[in-house]
Design goal:
Low-confidence stretches: 216-229
Shape: globular
Helix content: over 70%
Radius of gyration: 22 Å
Number of helices: 12
Amino acid sequence: MSTVLRRNAAFLVLVALAAVTAGIVWFVLPHDREVKSLGIFLFKLLPFVFTTEAIARLDVALFRRYHLVRVLVPVSFMVFFLYFVPKIFFYSDDFQNLYYHVLVLTPIVIVSLAMAYRLGGGTPGNVRRVAYAMLLIMVSGLEDLAFLTVNHHTDPQWDHIPATWDWASHMKVFLGHWPSRNEAYVFIAVHVVLVLFVLAAPTSWFERLNPWRRRTTGEAAREEPVRPAPAEV
């Protein structure tokens, strides 16, 4: 363990610096649209710089060994989807138009993360795993619950969890009626269980969804000597 810590010391220090500076930017500095000074502008770039440098120093072998991609990619998406998206909706003056654009943007974010992971060496099976897990998070109703809980509502209609979720049409199409609060909770819980199942299931299940690759690999095997399979990413 001490060897692992020494080998990843720079990574851990950079992660800590990124977290501290991000905390200062978010909780201490004012949330101004205007840039007040060059110093503040440069300081607000520090979390990005520290995070980038930490990722550049990430111990890929260690993360492969513990399959941490199954956690890190979905969690990164959840920060975007379950905190910032509800905040964006809360402060919107044109909710319907913004909602549609975010609805389209979110799958683009998912496939962008999946593409970056694949280009970085992720296996086809694990690309499917993380992408489908994030899609399940998107349609789970967690964002609806987050909208009600992470924002400070002053409208009496939204300062509590409504008894009927008469806006959750993606639940209605499954249930045949607007979900009650408890039905919405069950709907969310079922999706969370599915997400955990997808993230924990054997990788071979997802690799089997690529029959074309198996067929071409089999043809190549008859022509070329067998090589060791690459390590799972």
